[in-house]
User: What shape does this take?
Amino acid sequence: MSWDHFALLHARVEAELTKALQRGHGLGLSEYRALIQLAAVSGGCMRMQELAEAVGLNQSSVTRLVARLEEAGMTRRDLCSDDRRGVYSLITEEGRARLADATPTYERSLASALEQAGFDPLFTPLVLAVRGS
Assistant: This one.
């Protein structure tokens, strides 16, 4: 088991998740992950920098991501009441609804991608480790 094998498994699984979310819900994987993060926190809002860290993007990329989510009505921006320079991204009801619709697709696609990868002896130990088996 090597880092290269892990990276390859990760890339394959992410490609399947991306296809499923885009095809079924018009969502990118980063958009889905941002909605998951926002929905999981109290009040449904995070500072832009916190969101960037939570989804593994840089500040510039998360700004573009949030702009796409806002344009689709899934999030909105607000100023921080404690620090007027701080900007928050808040999930909207539309964002929560889209997330709820997409989550079963994400979970099925993840399970399917891992199951398929598990048939490849190169990935079997990694899939077992990910599943906690």
The longest strand covers residues 75-79. DSSP finds six helices and three strands in the chain. The mean pLDDT is 93. The radius of gyration is 17 Å.
